[in-house]
Amino acid sequence: MDVIRLTNLYKNFPRFDQGAVQTGNHPVLTNFSLTLDRSKITVLIGRSGCGKTTLLHILAGLCSVDRGSIDPVDLSRRSGVVFQDHRLLPWATVEANLMLALHVRKDLSKQAKRDRVINVLGSLGLEKTLNSFPAELSGGMAQRVALGRALLLEPELFLLDEPFAALDAITRAEMQNLLLDLHISTPTTTLFVTHDLDEASLIADRILVMDQGRICSDIAVDLPHPRHSQDGTLRALKDRIEAALNNGTPKAPFIDTPLRSNQEQPYV
Amino acid sequence: MIISFVVKQKLRSLLLVSTLPIVIVVLWEIVGRLGLTNSYLLPSPSAIWLAAVELWERGHLQRHLLVSVSRVLTGFSVSASLALSLAALHHGLPVVRRIMSVPMEAIRVVPPLAMVPVLILWLGIGEASKLAIIVLASFFPIYLSARTALASTDTRLLEMAKTLRLSRIEQTWFIVIPSAMPGLLTGLRLGFGYAWRALVGAEMIAAAAGLGYLIIDSEELARTDRIFVGIFAIAATGLLLDAIFLRVLPKDNRSGMLKGVF
To answer: What CDD domains does this protein map onto (chain B) (predicted)?
Structure first.
């Protein structure tokens, strides 16, 4: 999959009055177009209700579009999703939860599936949790298992919906590093939804600022990893994102204004 | 050391649950022996015990017990099968649920005993009408619990299952049923209790055996002691069956249901 192209997407949700009678439609995405770069981490940032989670759900196949085209058409079947909450089955062990991700892989033997599960757990530093239940894991560990579950699908598009939002600051930083390590070892096209300016500036190769169902700023981030949040360049980048967020409603359906930078050419 | 601790805990627990019944029986016996109550209206525990022994020695009590237990088990099996199937159908096809909702609600609010004359007309005075009473009494607790349990599946888990590309059948097997399992088991247990409680009503219909028949027959013979034997037999057997039910019925074996993925 070279590139992912979303063209002229429209999505409305019905609006109801107090008597549950539909009174109209609430537009969430309006003439939305986007091209995702291969093997890059694209961060989608925006205020609550701006349509970023709806967009992610559309890409994951959890929600349909009213109009528009997605290329490739079977994108949802090639994607892996990590949600804000781990969504592990509480009655199943870590192993069973992960094996569930491989259930559709009829081409693999049970032993091969088990080996993959053990490998993924190893890469996430969770070998000892194989027989644990989700309730026995910390929030960070459970979220790492959820990450492993998505990895087992070997996705061509990795969709992450504020995956670290519920974690404490230290665990969140660990998870961000883990994600970057995984991305370096297996570069996968990634769409990462977040509210967090720090997180966006630390991990993104490209930042899309979204407002009212449209992209109002598209910023390319050409900075090496690891990045440090106190770094001047990063602070300038965060100011840029914040300004885009505060400017609000876009003037055009899609403002393609990539602001490229590197360490020699800071955001000032 | 540990064993003695466990034994002590068990003894303590046994003492805790048995104290009140023992106190009631002792007080009841004392009141009876002192002649403070009419022995016809309220026979003493010892008189009830003697009546029970007499019925047991003649083989009557065992026969009544066996008939009642098999009747309840048959009625409950029919009821559970119907209720679980219908709950599954209504969960999968909400349109069918809406179409059937008014008649179902109407049947639910009518006490099963009110249906007795009609059931005799339709099904006769044989076993079928008695089973119908038990089915009517136990159907709705199982059906309603199952429907609520199935509807309360966490939609976030279903979303997750979709992203794993599981089919609808796989989602039902791996997510919906395990998630509904505690509610399903509670409904079955409640339904079993209702089936047992409907027994006397069911055995009022021209029965020739059963604990309900024993009570009705003893009333006609003015044998209050035997009426109490019937009541205590229903209570004791109900408690025993509930305990067996808890042990025998499928436990909350949700992790076992995931064996399909291994």
So the answer is: TM_PBP2
pLDDT band at residue A255 using 50, 70 and 90 as cut-offs: very low
Give per-residue pLDDT as tens, B43-66: 999 999 999 999 999 999 999 999
Give mean pLDDT, residues A33-62: 90
The residues of A whose Cβ lies within 8 A of any Cβ of B are 60-62, 77, 79-81, 83, 85, 87, 89, 91-93, 96, 99-104, 110, 114, 149-150, 153
Which CATH number is B60-252's, of 1.10.3720.10, 3.40.190.10, 3.40.50.300, 2.40.100.10?
1.10.3720.10
Partners of A262 in the beta sheet?
Answer: A265
Report how far residue B255's alpha carbon sits from residue B262's, in angstroms, rounded to the nearest whole number: 11
Burial class (CB in 10 A: 0-12, 13-18, 19+), B259: exposed
- B261·A100 Cβ contact <8 A: yes
- pLDDT at position A2 is 64
Q: In whole angstroms, what is the distance from residue B207 CA to residue A96 CA?
A: 53
pLDDT digits (tens, 9 = 90+) for A183-198: 888 899 999 999 888 8
* Residue A206 structural domain: 4-89+156-247
Tokens of A224: 């090496």
In a domain, A166, yes or no: yes
Nearest neighbour of A87 by CB, restricted to B156, B258, B262: B156
Q: Could you report the predicted ipTM of this complex, rounded to two decimals?
A: 0.83
Please report residues of B whose CB lies closer than 8 A to that of A101.
164
